[in-house]
Design brief:
The structure holds two protein chains of two kinds. By secondary structure, chain A is mainly β. Chain A has strands at about 10, 20-25, 35, 45, 60-65, 70-75, 85-90, 100, 105-109. Chain A is about 0% helix and about 45% strand. In chain A, a hairpin with a 6-residue loop joins strand 3 (about 35) and strand 4. Chain B is mainly β. Helix content of chain B is about 0%, strand content about 50%. Chain B is built from no helices and eleven strands. Chain B has strands at about 5, 10, 20-25, 35-40, 45-55, 60, 70-75, 80-85, 95-100, 110-115, 120. In chain B, the strands form two sheets. In chain B, strands 2, 4, 5, 6, 9, 10 and 11 form a seven-stranded mixed β-sheet that branches. Classes of the chains: A mainly beta, B mainly beta. The interface of A and B includes residues 41, 92 and 97 of A.
Chain lengths: ~110, ~120
């Protein structure tokens, strides 16, 4: 099955830039989606199709996808950005089909 | 606005069977385009896709759950459901229903609408 690897945690100070990675074999050939998950709330789609922001998502959120790594960047981090962030792809060659990464917890110091 | 709402028992004893239902409003599960899926979240395992179904009846299962799953759809009630058999403590988590597959990307499209989730605790 296809595996997406995310660091367990990232910490940044308010106002700084957070960089969250999602590693997968030739991930650039897949469409990567990113979800923000806060405790007690449903996941929220913050980036779809590698780089696009859904309506209502602040411009501070951006992303890229190249080689074996997709990256979510959050500029000018705010306290309200503290959450788990999951990447997700569809892998037609995997019997698991819709795959999530393990998630990265972003701590705002 | 599309809304999804999960309903379930809350607590289940091992090795019983879990039955969950997702009621869809503001849209129709009859849509031939979309997939209707179940995802669970547990602290140790993160988000995990469990199963999906289309209105045609086509089903897709996570093989990690080894034949314990049945997903079904009831277009007359605008609902879809999930059964998980032989429950263990490892099945404890928050279960979400979600829509995916919108647009030309089809299966590569994201999960775009989610329910609020229902907590399932497997304990004797």
């Amino acid at each position: 099955s296809y595996v997406l690897t995310q660091p367990l945690s990232v910490s940044v100070a308010p106002g700084e830039t957070a960089t969250l990675t999602c590693g997968g074999n030739d991930i650039e050939s897949k469409s990567v989606h990113w979800f923000q998950k806060k405790p007690g709330q449903a996941p929220v789609l913050v980036i779809h199709y590698d780089t696009d922001r859904p309506s209502g998502i602040p411009e501070r959120f951006s992303a890229s996808n190249s080689g074996d790594t997709a990256t979510l960047t959050i500029n000018r981090v705010e306290a309200g950005d503290e959450a788990d962030y999951f990447c997700q792809v569809w892998d037609p060659e995997s019997d698991h089909l819709w795959v999530f990464g393990g998630g990265t917890y972003l701590t705002v110091l | 606005q599309l809304q999804l709402e999960e309903s379930g028992p809350g607590q289940v004893q091992p090795p019983e069977t879990l039955s969950l239902t997702c009621t869809v409003s503001g849209g129709s599960v009859r849509s031939g385009v979309h997939f209707w899926g179940w995802i669970r979240h547990s602290p140790g395992r993160g988000l995990e896709w469990i199963a999906s179904i289309r209105s045609s009846g086509s089903t897709f299962y996570n093989p990690s759950l080894k034949g314990r799953l049945t997903i079904s759809i009831d277009t007359s009630r605008n609902q879809f459901s999930l059964e998980v058999t032989s429950l263990t403590a490892a099945d404890t988590g928050v279960y979400y229903c979600a829509r995916h597959g919108s647009g030309p990307a089809g299966r590569a499209a994201p999960f775009d609408y989610w329910g609020h989730g229902t907590l399932v605790t497997v304990s004797s």
